[in-house]
Specification:
Elements: E1 3-9, H1 16-26, E2 33-42, E3 55-61, H2 73-88, H3 90-96, E4 105-108, H4 114-118, E5 126-131, H5 145-149, E6 156-159, H6 162-171, H7 175-180, E7 181-183, H8 190-197, E8 222-226, H9 235-247, E9 253-257, H10 263-273, E10 279-283, H11 289-294, E11 297-300, H12 309-316, E12 320-324, H13 329-332, E13 340-342, H14 346-358, H15 364-372, H16 379-391
Parallel strand pairs: 1-2, 1-4, 2-3, 4-5, 5-6, 6-7, 8-9, 8-11, 9-10, 11-12, 12-13
Helix pairs in contact: 2-3, 9-10, 9-14
């Protein structure tokens, strides 16, 4: 008999957790599980990747509304009120949308759905949460010890890095709670990364952003950074460092690949700094890997992360890496053996990029080690470990 599973996430937009969830689901055996995937918003680039045997449900349909234009406010307000109502009265959600289905497992695919799953009226289900971020430093809210303790209401707490694992273990009050914490690296299809990196860049248009072909520049070193354009990713710091280095006469280019609600702010900052010619903002693209491949350096300018899977993508393509010291980076780059780890500040990024431009030979040892490097996991093993959690 198939296990009935409810998975909850906000949408399937172009973010790391969303990509990881889609990769995981499409590698599940369909004969073992009956899955309902409940989205707050039916939207996102990863929707087509969800297999047809998965039942997708949603609270609202349409793209995320990131503006406050008068014509958008009523629809935006309705979504907020409607979703808040269903969160406050979960029995309404489970009877009307989920048709009183009795689930064996309820799964919060990101930490933000903690309360929705823990307050489920299905008291017999086992409950799992997947923590992708350092909860001490999140986009809208930094969690206290007391708030993190609430996650021990789950039967299993899946974490994606050693840093996050230790944080939870330090808050565990007994052995039973410690046993609930399991570290599983995000499933990443390295073969897909390698194959896609060889394709010509066939950008699409989404959210009004124009995407062009990857370009190489034979004269100046190129730094690429890929991610959702949120303040978390530190693209503002990257642009300011870029300007500072140009003012010092160090010619180079940067490419920012991605979209998000902060896109216009970063674009405006680029104009204010007068670096529109040398700093390219490519927007969203279905396949960012040719950009990785064509760049000389990959820069992670993030203010915080959980476990930045994008670094594993850069490592798969043997890129020279400059990364701020955020959660997961030391673990992934083996304490600086596989890439240059810099202080988590604008000045740290400046020092890293300056070294790349003035002492490019200092990155040769990273290249030598990356040639021999094998990923500490593979797609099959990661999916297998998550299946073990679900089955047991």
């Amino acid at each position: 008999m198939k296990k009935k599973i409810l998975i909850r996430i906000g949408s399937l937009r172009h973010g790391g957790a969303e990509k990881v969830l889609a990769t995981f689901i499409k590698n599940l055996p369909k004969d073992k599980y009956d899955i309902d995937l409940l989205l707050n918003l039916y939207s996102g680039k990863y929707l087509p990747e969800i297999p047809s045997w998965v039942n997708i449900l949603y609270l609202n349909k349409g793209e995320m509304i990131t503006t406050n234009r008068p014509q958008d406010i009523p629809r935006k307000a309705f979504r907020v009120v409607y979703q808040a109502l269903l969160k406050k009265f979960p029995k309404l959600l489970y009877s009307k949308i989920l048709k009183n289905k009795k689930y064996d497992i309820e799964f919060a695919a990101i930490h933000g759905f903690r309360d929705e799953i823990l307050n489920s009226p299905v008291k017999t289900s086992k409950k799992i949460v997947w923590i992708h971020n350092d909860l001490r430093k999140t986009q809208f809210h930094n969690y206290t010890d007391e708030e993190i303790r609430k996650f021990f209401g789950f039967d299993k707490i899946m974490v994606i890095s050693e840093h996050i694992q230790k944080d939870f273990e330090n808050l565990a009050q007994n052995e039973d709670e410690k046993k609930r914490i399991v570290r599983i690296y995000n499933p990443l299809d390295t073969q897909e990364v390698l194959i896609k990196s060889l394709e010509p860049g066939n950008g699409t248009q989404e959210l009004g952003r124009t995407n062009q072909q990857p370009q190489t520049n034979n004269h100046y070193p190129t730094f690429v950074s890929v991610g959702t354009v949120f303040p978390q990713k530190g693209f503002d710091r990257l642009l300011k460092v870029h300007k500072r280095l140009l003012d010092e006469g160090l010619k180079h280019k940067i490419q920012i690949i991605g979209d998000g609600y902060d896109f216009e702010n970063i674009k405006n900052l680029r104009a204010e700094l007068g670096v529109e010619e040398s700093a390219e903002m490519r927007g969203f693209t279905e396949n960012p890997y040719p950009y990785f491949k064509n760049a000389d350096f990959y820069v992670l300018s993030s203010r915080y992360e959980g476990f930045p899977t994008v670094l594993f993508e850069a490592m798969t393509l043997k890129k020279n890496i400059i990364a701020t010291e955020v959660s997961g980076v030391k673990e992934m780059l083996e304490d600086g053996k596989l890439g240059f780890i810099v202080e988590n500040s604008e000045d740290g990024i400046y020092q890293g990029m300056k070294k790349a431009l003035t002492e490019p030979e200092s990155f040769n040892p990273y290249q030598e080690r990356l040639k021999e490097y094998e990923m500490p996991f593979n797609l099959e093993n990661s999916v297998k470990k998550i299946i073990e959690v679900i089955d047991n």
